[in-house]
Amino acid sequence: MDQKFLWGSALAANQCEGAYLAGGKGESIIDRLPAGKDRFLVMEDPVHHADQNYDFYPSHEGVHFYQNYKEDLKLLAEMGINSLRISISWPRIFPKGIEEEPNEEGLRFYDEIFAELARYQITPIVTMNHFDTPYYLSKNFNGWAETITRECFLRYAKTILTRYHDQVPYWIPCNEINMAKHLPYVGAGIQAKTPQSVADAINNLLIANASCVKMAHELDSNLKVGCMLAAGNTYPATPKPEDVMLSIEKDRDNLMFVDVQVRGQYPNYYLKSLAHDGIKLNLSTEEKEILAENPVDFVSFSYYNSRMCSVEGSQKSTQGNVFATMKNPYLKETDWGWQIDPVGLRITMNTLYDRYQKPLMIVENGLGAHDELVNGEVYDQERIDFLQRHIEQMQLAISVDGVETLGYLSWSALDLNSASTGQMSKRYGFIYVDLDDKGKGSYQRIPKASYYWYQNFLK
């Protein structure tokens, strides 16, 4: 493979930093998500549950990356990665989102992060908004459903692009943008969820993404700006034509977001569905031009699992990155019911590249598992097998299918609070963090067997 291929891993500010009100930071929408059974209650119905008091909020302390970033980045450099995807916390820069001037102390924190990465010659890939909409904008303006949130985001985007354009070559404005449809509070900060407010939020997010492309290219023609999708193809459960058609419709629910960001306009199938549901697409002539004239430079995506569907439905369902799915009898599952499908990664890569002819970047791929610390060591062979099999399929997509691919960034660099469940016990990292589901522990970092496997692989 090309020497410039990005081999690395990934982190998200809201899951790792902690220090949730330190250095002038404001509250993010994720800072209102408790651990345990109430977490999805808040995600699904923030109007009635986000302002209640809960026992434990995982994001408030994270895994102390804010305090330990030098140690963590040193460990990752020693593992041998040449790239790291991180996110900047929007409310660390604009605490409420509405401020005219940024929080300088927040910016200085990221100054130090990028200085450390440069020291180790690690290329940063930066997500501007990784489920980190300021809570103030969510509470007072229904998040991305209102254009004021888009305007606030673009002020924030201009601030960080201007400050870091000579240090960060790759930018992703919005993490898993299709979550605005599937989980509107997390994906778009929506509190009052209606079909119209979700459509408005999606529209604002897509225009914001295109506006970031325009802004970045005008600032520095070398910058690359991508979109980011929670990906994974949907298989029909049978060859029954109705099942095949349903699988196409399920995939369109997600691919629509990339259709707009690559092709510059809304696809007819989406416009028809809005009209059928009586939803008005509020799009000015100027906004249409922004979408049309500013396609993304690359398509990035997370891949954890494939899905399966049937018009008959099924009692046998399982989980997978917010999307519930039918059980595929040919696949094994993780401890959390996510189906393991390495070949599905190759299928997804071919689907995206055939459809868009844009370079791909895999920015999340990993295994959530119960990792046990035994005599000071973690033998996570299951994770090694998972990563190895997925990387093999990626390499086939590149070498056999000709899929242009920029990089592979595993999820995650070190153990984090799980985005979906808030648990620490659902571990993804190469580096074990001594912390339990209630936030108790020493925060000690211990490289796992997978750390040494990846280190050897990268050599």
From TrEMBL:
GO BP: carbohydrate catabolic process
Keywords per UniProt: Glycosidase, Hydrolase
Gene Ontology MF: a single term: beta-glucosidase activity
Pfam families assigned: Glyco_hydro_1
SUPFAM superfamilies tied to this protein: (Trans)glycosidases
Gene Ontology annotations for the cellular component aspect, listed alphabetically: cytosol
InterPro entries, sorted: GH (IPR017853), GH_1_N_CS (IPR033132), Glyco_hydro_1 (IPR001360)
Residues spanning the membrane: none
Leader peptide range in chain numbering: none
Family that this chain belongs to: Belongs to the glycosyl hydrolase 1 family.
Protein name: 6-phospho-beta-glucosidase
Organism: Xylocopilactobacillus apicola
